[in-house]
Specification:
The chain is mainly alpha-helical. About 45% of the residues lie in helices and about 10% in strands. It contains 11 helices and 6 strands. The strands form 2 sheets. A 3-stranded antiparallel beta sheet has the order 1-2-3. A 3-stranded antiparallel beta sheet has the order 4-5-6, with no helix packed on it. The longest helix is centred in the middle third of the chain and has 15 residues. It is globular.
């Protein structure tokens, strides 16, 4: 079972500049595309010139392990929530539903700021009581149960995303996949009729790329994804392309632990390496 965490203080809202793409309102200092592209080019070097799929996989796997020089513990309140998983608008969002303001702090503190001094006392007490409730958790896209909760997998930032606590508990350790025509609807998406697969409402592309990263970084560590399941991940990868948010997540993880997700930097490598329908 995944551990719920609470964000203790809201992130101050930064100034905004023009949108970088559909749905993106990018705050100043959020993501430096030019610097990140230069870092990525330097990081991969000659690895990407390998044409043989098995050799490319092997080179990337060794590179991801060798450059994973800092191995954070599982501390979402320190590593995930303050910056790594922020969206371009400055807020956190559930990976599988894109629900914003998972802690509820934005709305509560706005009401508090607008209240009269007398009302503010009561609202302050209400906010304090509400803040004691865990509403936010860190989701391991590749579930902890599958690798016996071992390090460095447990704290690997490329596999950690903000998630609504209820949705996180709802999914549990169910593998991701297409739920099928007889699917059962739940808050965060759908379960297959036999309960063996979970299909999220949103975040399919990021979830797929996080899983493909994990399969490359830790080959043989998990056995939940065979050819059929990997084909589903590739389809999600194609249908839900990399966004500014995901590039930001990748860069922040890179700055903190040293390695990168190659399928964010080079989406074409996923098609080259993994089985295709």
């Amino acid at each position: 079972m995944l551990v719920s965490m609470r964000l203790h203080s809201p992130m101050p809202t930064a100034p905004f500049r023009a949108a970088a793409g559909p749905g993106d309102v990018v705050s100043i200092g959020y993501y430096d595309a030019a610097r990140d592209q230069a870092d990525a080019q330097s990081y991969y070097g000659q690895a990407g010139k390998e044409q043989h799929r098995a050799q490319l996989f092997l080179k990337l796997s060794k590179l991801l392990e060798r450059t994973h020089t800092t191995r954070p513990g599982y501390e979402p309140a320190k590593y995930v929530f303050p910056r790594l998983d922020r969206r371009p608008d400055g807020e956190l969002a559930c990976l599988y539903t894109t629900r914003r303001d998972l802690t509820g702090q934005g709305e509560r503190w706005s009401r508090l700021a607008l209240a009269s001094p007398l009302d503010a006392v009561g609202l302050g007490l209400a906010v304090a009581a509400e803040e004691s409730r865990p509403r936010l958790t860190a989701e391991h896209v590749v579930a902890r149960d599958w690798f016996d909760d071992r390090q460095p997998m447990r704290g690997d930032l490329h596999n950690l995303f903000a998630c609504d606590k209820d949705v996180n508990e709802e999914r549990g350790s169910t593998p991701l996949g297409e739920a099928g025509p007889d699917r059962i609807e739940v808050r965060g998406g759908w379960f297959s009729s036999d309960g063996q697969l979970f299909e999220p409402r949103e975040g399919k592309g990021p979830a797929a790329r996080a899983t493909l990263y994990f399969l490359t970084r830790y080959p043989g560590a998990i056995h939940c994804y065979g050819r059929k399941e990997t084909e589903t991940l590739l389809r999600w990868h194609r249908e839900d392309p990399v966004s500014t948010y995901e590039r930001h997540h990748n860069r922040e993880a890179f700055l903190r632990q040293g390695n990168r997700n190659p399928y964010i930097d080079h989406p074409e490598w996923a098609e080259q390496i993994f089985p295709r329908p």
